[in-house]
Amino acid sequence: MKHRKWQLGVVMAAAGSLFASGAVGADQQGAYIGLVGGVGLLNDTAATVSSGGVATTGTLEFSDGPIGGIVTGYTFANGLRPELEVTYRRNRFDGGGGNVRTASGVASLYYNFSNKGYYFYVGGGGGYANLRAYLDEAGGDTANKAVYSAGTGLGFAATRNLQVGVDYRFTGTFDRPVFTYDVGGAPVDAAFRYRGSVVTIGLRYSFGAIFGGGEGSGVRAGDEDVRVVPVSR
Asked: Any idea what the CATH number is for the domain that residue 60 is in?
């Protein structure tokens, strides 16, 4: 997990340096909507299980799982881009025995860099998540928690109104969720730190705006077809 996150960080940092001298969102304006899908990577974490006043601690490991969702936002001419992202993800415990399902809504503010049809962004935000931890032998319990998010991404303009990109998010809860189960008629509490990474491929469609970025791209909002009209003398 740590090795993959380090590699992704190097790639994103290199991409950011390429856009440092590019135009800053000058021609990316307007509302948009999109779809994202990819893989969710939950960090391995220490878990505390307590019952009857006795607590034990162990390591909880997760398998990578699918994630999907929708996004909507607005891109301003100065490069600022507020976005709302609603996603659902599922991660099984390593070795089986149950899973954690997460439905979340996060509002973020990003800053766009664009250059000749390509873009790079960075930012962060916060929101709310509904976590459901299910155990095969004891059923499931839910916890609702505030979450934070830091994100970056890059991509290109596939058409005049459609972007294709790769997005990265690091998300987590501000405090540990606690789940309660009935095991043999006795209540058992399980708590662990929830945080991890998300890597997705996204499609974003702009309404009435033109993604085409940067100087020299030849694409600008408001461009119209040029017609040659013969003039009689």
From this structure: 2.40.160.20
